[in-house]
Amino acid sequence: MAHTCRGTISLTTAHIEVGDACHLVLTSGGRSYHLKATSDGESQRWVSALQQAKANASHMMHQSDDSGDEAPVPQPDRALTQGALKTLASKLDDLSTCNELIGKHGAALQRSLSELEDLRTATDGTDKLKTVNERATLFRITSNAMINACRDFLDVAETHSRRWQRALQYEREQRHHLEETIEQLAKQHNSLERAWREAPSTHPDGGERTQEGDASDENEDTEFFDAMEDSPAFITVTASDHTQHRRSSSNQSIMSGGLPNNEWSHNENDSGSNNVQLRRVRRSRIPDKPNYSLNLWSIMKNCIGKELSKIPMPVNFNEPLSMLQRLTEDLEYSDLLDRASRCESSLEQMCLVAAFSVSSYSTTIHRTAKPFNPLLGETYELDRLDDFGYRSICEQVSHHPPAAAHHVTSQRGWTLWQEITIDSKFRGKYISVMPLGCIHLQFHSSGNHYVWGKVTSTVHNIIVGKLWIDQSGDIEIVNHRTKDSCHLKFVPYSYFSRDLSRKVTGVVADSEGTAHHILSGTWDDKMESAKIVESSRGCGGSEGKQKTLYQTLQPKVLWKKYPLPENSENMHFFSSLALTLNEPEEGVAPTDSRLRPDQRLMEAGLWDEANAHKQRLEERQRLERRKREAQATQVLEEGQDIEGFQPLWFERRTDDSTGESTYVYRGGYWEAKDRQDWSQCPEIF
After folding, report:
1. 36: left (phi over 0), alpha (psi -120 to 50) or beta
2. How many beta carbons lie within 10 A of that of residue 196, not counting itself?
3. Contact in structure between 515 and 541 (CB atoms under 8 Å)
4. How far apart are CA 86 and CA 271, in angstroms?
5. Which GO terms describe its cellular component (predicted)?
């Protein structure tokens, strides 16, 4: 190929590796092609041909570099180019003339030879032979002229082709430089946009800044129809009645995130005076991910149908966070709960809770890597009282099946707790991760107690292609105090569907089942809510079902995803919060995920050392499990009650609202941290 395009690699820089079972690997510029021959003989022929082609390509490149002028020609002279083209055209005309003459003299020579065969007398033969010789001489002269003209044409073409190749190479380099400049500008734009989002939410004159502005007012009377495949099916129509008063612009503004990680912040105390307090600066980057290639299928092909947590895998398929840290990452948009705690309407509060439940999936769009399986008894704390107003503690309470308990207390009026058991299966072409368990959220002032679950996450293209993740299923959020409910539907991706990808729809209803708000959006970008002002039965939908026609006010944005940090593609696509989760902290428990050596080494890019530590930790955990099983057998033989593993900071209780048995925080962790008394903690690392 004279140029690169999709599906090509440069043979001059390619590395040819021969594996076993007739397997070849071609690697060049970070791109690898895995080839398999039908036999050893064919494999050897391919290797020989590829190596010969590589040698030829290197030789041609060397010749091209050594020939012609050494200095690059940034801008070929226009007159020189036109002169070369005129010369080539003249040579081409000469070739055309020679071609006509060769055809003419060749035909005459053929006629003479035919007449020579028909001769009957010697006299006639002498004359004809003389004619044949003359015409053969003319044919030879014309042929030589043709050959010389071809040689001249080739000489001119070769002389100028090297110049044009250098000019073309210069243009390619300029284009590449331009692409890099545009990419750098895009990153700078992204950084500026992120800085603008993290700026204080008030103008110098004291007015509140809205990200929506007044642009939404221009289309106040616009109607829109959105047929959603939800149950019950419905259609929404924006109200055009001017008597319907819009909410104030402050209520329609996008709900911004937590406070930025600035070194200084101004906090207003209860007496109204301003305090200036020093705030810790959190890290904003981690070491870039190494470019290690490893075939996932070679490990997974013998594990079809097995639970993913029981498959020993190297850290190459992990990200440098544990499952406890991924669970804590659900708090990325905790500001939604802060806003919800101030809502007087339980239905509007439900909308914000629903947006929060969707927002926890926004960080997964590019995160196809697997988090570390926590060791039994492993913990993770996140103390963000100074900027986000909450404290979070997680503990791994079971290893098979893997289960984690989580408790969050916020000074801004809410408490969240959950116990999540991960059920993951490898299905051949994809991996399904099904979180089992409930998330509980209670607001202190109203006592509203919300409960919901999680949807199924699916990682596709395990065998071939680029890995991608999808979320699908339904979430039912219930307020156990008022009996309000919200049904969210995560629409699975379909190649044939005309729906928006990663679409989420929902309806917020009161205790009697009357719908009050319509929710719509995508789990990787934003969620909106529209207040229903009128509903009626519409025309028949699919499969004979009637659609409900909802007339709504203009939708308002509940939640909008933050842009990813700069260079996130080389940092496992971590969000701003995720980058800080594994940051070393002083005074944490010795069982904290930040102290796990294999995870720390992987974050630093030392994957071989991380794999060695991972195997050591897993083998140690197996020995501990066998020891507990032996003790349990001995207790059974003695006729005593068996007491299994008991978590240190959580205990199992029956929830008063749902009647389900779940792990809840028993207390004591933060007090132990204040005393720095970790004598109860097991040594797991």
Report:
1. beta
2. 10
3. no
4. 89
5. cytosol; perinuclear endoplasmic reticulum; plasma membrane
Non-local CB neighbours of 393 within 8 Å, separated by 6+ positions: 379, 380, 381, 406, 407, 408, 649, 665, 669, 670
**Cα–Cα distance, 485 to 113 (Å, whole number):** 103
pLDDT tens, position by position, 253-277: 333 333 333 344 444 444 444 555 5
pLDDT for 370-410, tens place per residue?
A: 899 999 999 999 999 999 999 999 999 998 888 999 999 99
Query: CB–CB of 73/81 below 8 Å?
Result: no
pLDDT tens digit sequence for 542-587: 555 667 888 899 999 999 999 999 999 999 999 999 999 999 999 9
Q: How many residues does the chain have?
A: 685
Q: Which two tokens stand for residue 480?
A: 């156990």
**Contact predicate 84/157, CB 8 Å:** no
Residue ranges of E strands in 176-294: 234-238, 264-268, 274-278
Strands (E), 523-624: 526-540, 546-552, 556-560
Phi, psi dihedral angles at 678 (to 5 degrees)? -110, 30
Residues 390 and 383: their CA atoms lie apart, in Å, by 7
**What's the pLDDT at 266?**
44
| CA dist., res. 397 & res. 418, Å (int) | 12
Q: How far apart are CA 98 and CA 94, in angstroms?
A: 6
Of residues 394, 393, 402, the one with CA closest to residue 375: 402
CB atoms closer than 10 angstroms to residue 505:
20
Q: Is the pTM of this model over 0.85?
A: no
Q: How far apart are the C-alpha atoms of 353 and 360, rounded to whole Å? A: 11
- Burial per residue of 412-437, b for 16 or more beta-carbon CB atoms within 10 angstroms, e otherwise: bbbbbbbbbebebebeeebbebebeb
Residue with tokens 């240190």: 648
Q: Looking at 119-123, 231-235, 284-288, which range is the least confident one? A: 231-235
CA distance 341 to 349: 7
Phi, psi (deg, nearest 5) at residue 521: 155, -160
From start to end of 373-467, where are the E strands? 379-384, 390-398, 403-410, 414-426, 431-436, 439-443, 449-452, 456-460
Would you tell me how many other CB atoms lie within 10 Å of the CB of residue 149? 20
Using CA atoms, how far apart are residues 322 and 422, in angstroms rounded to an integer? 13
